[in-house]
Write a structure and sequence with these properties.
By secondary structure, the protein is mostly helical. The chain is 31% helix and 3% strand. The chain is built from 18 helices and three strands. It is globular, with a radius of gyration of 19 Å.
């Protein structure tokens, strides 16, 4: 199990959200041309290979018989609503456009229930199959939170890994997207050049840090670092390679509140230099697992 910096994932879970948050899957993603960008499939079909865990007879056709079966988890850890988009009427990220998440959806019956689509997005892997008090599946009400929307100009990198090489299966879509609320601030490796890169930079779709809508790239004048009102987005701007992953008083990461400062592309060359500094950071080195540390040292 991940250690150290992944501890907040466990701390933030409750009840059945503590189960199986790292075995998500999004079979629609691929990188056929090796350009580091996920190429979305052009068709939307139920996966003929999927079946419920420990029961090969219960495939997508079985799922289609009852909507609650869309909550079933497959042998490979993929939920039915992802593997059987036709049977579950969940749509395909590859082909479906959507207007966004339903701002009125709540898990509970109360209008003051704060378990909204934003709550779903924080741990999408386990929360997307949940059903609200009004009987609406989260994956239907919150398609963006659940990674079921196609967003032009925004995608996850297919070459980012939490660790240092391609053997690490902690990718943007499958690992970061499963618990974005606790993983988007973590550094990882971009396999194209071997330099470190934060998940929020590489996994734009999973972390909701897309930059294609320029109007959203503004700094929140009310945000400041937790317990320090003097440290605002202007303070973050002075050292973005480390301060964009500082947490604020309102529990938002700096990269979520200081979008202009942390997400706008830097001048040519500055991004690579910042990533080189991150790659040589002892603090980053300490957050690796022992086996990864050995690999990290061998590259230097």
């Amino acid at each position: 199990a991940p250690e150290g910096d992944d501890a907040p994932v466990d701390d933030a879970r409750e009840g059945d959200d503590a189960q199986d948050d790292e075995d998500g899957d999004d079979p629609a993603l691929d990188d056929d041309d090796g350009d580091g960008v996920n190429t979305q499939a052009t068709t939307c079909v139920d996966d003929p290979a999927w079946h419920k865990a420990s029961d090969p007879t219960k495939d997508c056709a079985w799922v289609a018989g009852l909507s609650t079966r869309c909550q079933a988890k497959g042998e490979d850890g993929t939920f039915a609503f992802r593997a059987c988009p036709i049977a579950c009427a969940s749509g395909c990220r590859a082909t479906d456009e959507c207007s966004g998440d339903d701002p009125t959806w709540r898990l509970g019956a109360s209008e003051t229930d704060d378990r909204t689509c934003d709550w779903v997005a924080a741990f999408a892997q386990n929360r997307c199959p949940k059903v609200s008090a009004s009987g609406i599946f989260a994956y239907r009400a919150c398609p963006r939170a659940c990674g079921l929307c196609a967003i032009d100009g925004c995608d996850d990198s297919a070459t980012w890994r939490r660790g240092v090489d391609a053997l690490d299966d902690r990718t943007c879509a499958e690992w970061v997207g499963a618990a974005a609320g606790a993983r988007c601030h973590l550094p990882g490796t971009n396999l194209t050049d071997g330099l470190w890169q934060y998940a929020f930079q590489a996994c734009a779709l999973s972390c909701a840090t897309c930059t294609h809508v320029v109007e959203t790239l503004v700094d929140d004048p009310l945000w400041h670092k937790a317990d320090d009102p003097a440290k605002t987005c202007a303070w973050v701007a002075a050292k973005t390679d480390t301060r964009c992953v500082v947490k604020g008083e309102d529990d938002r990461w700096a990269f979520q509140a200081c979008r202009a400062t942390c997400l706008l592309p830097p001048p040519p060359g500055e991004d690579d230099e910042a990533r080189r500094r991150l790659s040589s950071s002892p603090a980053v080195h300490r957050r690796l697992r022992p086996r990864q540390r050995r690999r990290w040292r061998s590259r230097r």
